[in-house]
Amino acid sequence: DLPWSMWATIDRLRILSGVVGGEGSVVIVSRLPVSLNGQRLVKAANLQDPVANIKSQIKRIGTNEKRRLRNKAAKSEVKTRIKTAFVAAEGGAEAEPDELRLAVKKLDKAAARGIIHRNQAANRKSALMRFAARSAAATAAVSEVEAAS
Q1: In Å, how far are 32, 37, 38, 88, 119 from 13, measured between CA atoms?
Q2: What is the arithmetic mean of pLDDT over 119-142?
Q3: Phi and psi (nearest 5°) for 115?
Q4: Which residues does 107 contact at the CB level (< 8 Å), separation at least 6?
Q5: Contact between residue 124 and residue 107 where contact means Cβ atoms under 8 Å apart
Q6: Is 40:50 a contact under the CB 8 Å cutoff?
Q7: Phi, psi values for residue 23, rounded to 5°
């Protein structure tokens, strides 16, 4: 016996799939592999969403995909630079100013290109600089205590 939520999910999958085939048939239902009464429902790897018939829309879909991938790479780069700047600031490394400068540069560039909103870039820079200032103050305090003793 399955809980009612599982039965509801199975019914939803049956509706999405249309007619569940006979013995041993494979039906494309959802992105998640599901077992339904011993039948395995899978999504084919080459199944795509319906594509437009209009030539300009097909081109637009292609350009949107290119831009999405470019924006994804840029966002990933920004996140990486911010993480390395945080690690450098936390560790008090000599490369800390360079890492901070590079992170700020990447944030500004992403905001200028419209990949992230300019206010988000400002907020991230502010948080980064505050963290760097606090860690620098903490490092100074620790070295001051060590010098005093």
Answers
A1: 10, 12, 14, 49, 42
A2: 92
A3: -75, -40
A4: 78, 81, 82, 116, 121, 124, 125
A5: yes
A6: no
A7: -70, 130
Q: Are 58 and 51 in contact (CB under 8 A)?
A: yes
Q: How far is CA 3 from the centre of its chain?
A: 33
Whether this prediction's pTM lies above 0.85 is answered by no
pLDDT for the residue 33: 47
| Residues 98 and 105: beta-carbon distance below 8 Å | no
Q: Which residues contact 74 (CB under 8 A, 6 or more apart)?
A: 109, 110, 113, 115
Cβ-Cβ contacts under 8 Å for 56 (sequence gap 6 or more):
none
CA–CA distance, 27 with 29 (Å, rounded to integer)? 6
| Residue position matching structure tokens 């899978």 | 42
Q: How far is the C-alpha of 14 from the C-alpha of 89, rounded, in Å?
A: 54
